[in-house]
Write a structure and sequence with these properties.
This protein is α/β, with parallel strands linked by helices. It is built from 11 helices and 8 strands. The structure holds 2-phosphoglycolic acid.
Length: 249
C-alpha cells in the first residue's frame, strides 16, 4: 500500500517573527517536484502560527493544545484557536509534554479528539525511554502507548503517529535501521489489528535526531511514512535536505 509521506518540523520553543524568513525559504524549497511526492509541515511556536499560515503552499500546525475548546485555562490554547489562525495539524503527546507536564496517554487521547473537533489532524507522539529500551521493554511500551493514546475514532485522515525514542531526541543518537523497522512493524501490526485496512494507511513517522545525513536510510525503511524533525527543521537547508531524500525514492 502506498502511503503519502509527511515530513514535519517541530520548532519547539525556538523562533521569532524574524524567523519568517527561514520559514519562507522552506516554503520556496517545497516545490512542485517535492509536493508531488510528499506532504510537508512546520509546527512553529503558537505565537507565530497566524503569521506563518499566510504562506499558502506550506501548512502549519501547533505543538500542543488543550482538550477544551475555551475557558479558564490560563496560558493554554485550544485546537479551535489553532484552526482559527490557519493551523492544520497539532502535535499531541510529545515526550517533552509527557515528561515535563505529566501528560498521560488519556490526556493525549483527549487532545487528539479536541484536534478532530476543530478539524485538525492530530500527530500523536509515542516513544520509549533509554531505561525501557535497555530493559528490552520497547515494543511493549510503545504498543501500550499507541493503544491508549489513540481514540477509537482514529483514521488515516485525522491522525498521524510519530514514534520518537526519547533517548534519540536532540541527542544525535538514533536507533539502528533494524530497530526502527522492528518498532514500526509492531506499530503497524497494532494499527491494523485495531483499525483494519485503514490501519495500513495511518502514517507512522520516525522522529529523533533525523538529519540530512541519515534521512535516506531511515525514510526508506518499511512502515516509515515520514519524519518528525526537531533541531534540523529550524534551518531551511537541513529540513529540505531531509525532505529531498524522497526525490531519490
Ligand atoms: P530532534 O527532535 O530532531 O531535534 O531530535 C525531534 C522531536 O522532538 O520531534
Amino acid at each position: 500500500m502506498t502511503v503519502r509521506p509527511l515530513v514535519a518540523g517541530n520548532w519547539k520553543m525556538n523562533g521569532t517573527k524574524e524567523s519568517y524568513e527561514e520559514f519562507a525559504k522552506i516554503a520556496a524549497g517545497y516545490d512542485a517536484a517535492l509536493a508531488e511526492k510528499i506532504d510537508m509541515l512546520v509546527c512553529p511556536p503558537a505565537v507565530l502560527l497566524a503569521q506563518f499560515a499566510e504562506v499558502e503552499n506550506l501548512p502549519v500546525g501547533a505543538q500542543n493544545c488543550h482538550a477544551a475548546a475555551s475557558g479558564a485555562h490560563t496560558g493554554d490554547i485550544s485546537a479551535e484557536m489553532v484552526a482559527n489562525v490557519g493551523g492544520k495539524y497539532v502535535i499531541v503527546g510529545h515526550s517533552e509534554r509527557r515528561e515535563g507536564y505529566g501528560e498521560t496517554d488519556a490526556d493525549v487521547a483527549a487532545k487528539a479528539e479536541a484536534a478532530w473537533r476543530a478539524g485538525l489532524v492530530a500527530i500523536v507522539c509515542i516513544g520509549e525511554s533509554l531505561e525501557q529500551r535497555e530493559a528490552g521493554e520497547t515494543i511493549a511500551v510503545v504498543t501500550e502507548q499507541i493503544t491508549k493514546s489513540l481514540p477509537d475514532a482514529s483514521t488515516s485522515a485525522n491522525t498521524v503517529v510519530a514514534y520518537e525514542p526519547i533517548w534519540a531526541i536532540g541527542t544525535g543518537k538514533t536507533p539502528t535501521a533494524d530497530d526502527v523497522a522492528e518498532v514500526h512493524a509492531a506499530l503497524r501490526k497494532s494499527l491494523v489489528e485495531r483499525f483494519g485496512e485503514d490501519g495500513e494507511k495511518i502514517r507512522l513517522l520516525y522522529g529523533g535526531s533525523v538529519k540530512p545525513t541519515n534521512a535516506s536510510e531511515l525514510l526508506a525503511l518499511p512502515n516509515v511514512n515520514g519524519a518528525l524533525v526537531g533541531g534540523a527543521s529550524l534551518k531551511a537547508t537541513d529540513f529540505l535536505g531531509i525532505a529531498e531524500a524522497y526525490k531519490n525514492f
